[in-house]
Model the fold of this input.
Amino acid sequence: MAKALDLEELTRLYELMMTIEHRMKEIGEDFSYEKQVLENRLEHLRKPLLGELSPWEKVMIARHQKRPTALDLIPHLFDDYTEMHGDRYFGDDPAISGGIAWFGDEPVTVIAQQKGRNTKENIKRNFGMPNPEGYRKSLRLMKQAEKFGRTVICFVDTPGAYPGVGAEERGQAFAIANNLLEMSWLRVPIITIVIGEGGSGGALALGIGDRVYMLEHAIYSVISPDGAAALLWKDASLAEKAAELLKITAQDLFQYQIIDGIIPEPGVGAHFSLTDTAKQIRQHLSLAIAELHSCEIAELIEQRYEKFMKMVRFTESEQTIASSAKPSILV
Amino acid sequence: MKPGRDQGIYCPDCDGRVDREKLYHDWKMCPFCQYHFPLTADERLALTLDRDSFRPIAEGLLTEDCLQFPEYLDKIEQDRRKTNLQEAVLAGVGNIGGHEVVMAAMDTRFRMGSMGSVVGETIVRAIRYAHDTRLPLIVFSASGGARMQEGIFSLMQMGRTAMELGKFHRAGGLYISVLTHPTTGGVTASFAALGDIIIAEPRALIGFAGPRVIQQTIRQQLPEGFQRAEFLQDKGFLDLIVSRPALRETLLKLLNFHKGVRAIG
Done:
């Protein structure tokens, strides 16, 4: 795919420019001519490309190996992140990292789905696919936050729940459902940011937020485009088409009022500049926290409920159709 | 149909040939192995509620093609004709041995019982109705999961039903969730899993990920009885497994235990 290649090229050029900028700043070497040339070339490439990224290209950006993970972002957003392990029932799930940190002068609870940054890490973190322990650890930390009046900040980045024997044996459906229920009445503000892939129930298990944001090129979907293609057309290679139909981009979901805001990404995506991405996230977090703190807790919970209640689409007919509702007696 | 077979009904579990008439006299269970054939929503209501006691609620909710998904409304229309249902769930008020209850029953013939906006909204309204009228709530789940063609709106129905149940539970309402074959995906991971009491029919398939997806992922033989009701009870997720002929009596018994229980506010 030509565009995909352009994207890689663009990333490479951006990285080159970062190096040049770094050298100029740190070492004082003068590369201003090279920088100018690069900038022109980048602008030339970037404009037409970013304006019309297809949903599938966004999927590729969201899954990009170099995309910042939550643990990359956390040091740029918070101070003293102190990770807490385990669900106190079964084990500790490395696919979700959670703990306490300072956001400015306020302690907050951070819960983050974490993909690996390389193959070895991915095996440890199960490619960011949580097991039930992960959801239960998240809930434990949320209840802890509730007790001490800490705002909860969740980072979503998962292909989805884990389709594994153990995950089913330990009741992942029950764990996810319980998170949805408990988050609906948690007596502290909840802010969720989808930073990469928001895969189905695994994402929603951290997604009942007073504010839900997505990074500009993140995706959020009921099923992965690959999974949808396999189910609909028995052909996973049609994922590109499915990505289009499913309406999974931040822009689509903002329009549907499923999310409360889109956090801009620098350059060709968050992987271009970690610090710029973090800066944008920090701004959104500050604003959201200030807004949510000014709200009475009972009111906050009611608003959370009302917000999600609007996320439905149907038509209501005046007359009752068909007599299907009357049960027929068995033969 | 396998070659050399007639048009008759064969049990999907033991492959025995089942006489159609006898099937309906036997609670739609296989006479050889007691496999519980899925019931339609109509049959479920008729089998559970006192005769002629059912009054529908949340009628007239029509499916919307919110994502402009190709062929979606055609498929809905086909299933409407096939099932004489508007959507994959029926909800209403009825009596069980004189106890008035709010009841919803899903139907897997309609888009595999998948949950889109209308299913989600119907469940939400049933919960709210039970809350407002202070009646117990009983939901019979049967579902392939979230409905793909409504995308993110289907996913959000998991949140909505769970949140509405949150209000109902806080108000002290009684919710009995009955899981029937098959209950998977987003329905299992939302309202179906949140009952005060969770009952399943014998050998019902219950899970989040479907067995085929799991098998493709791990590329191993799945354990015997994996994701069946008995397996789930063994793992600690089901209160009761009750076969179909005993189900009404069991519900009646449970309703009696909770006679004074009323949702408030």
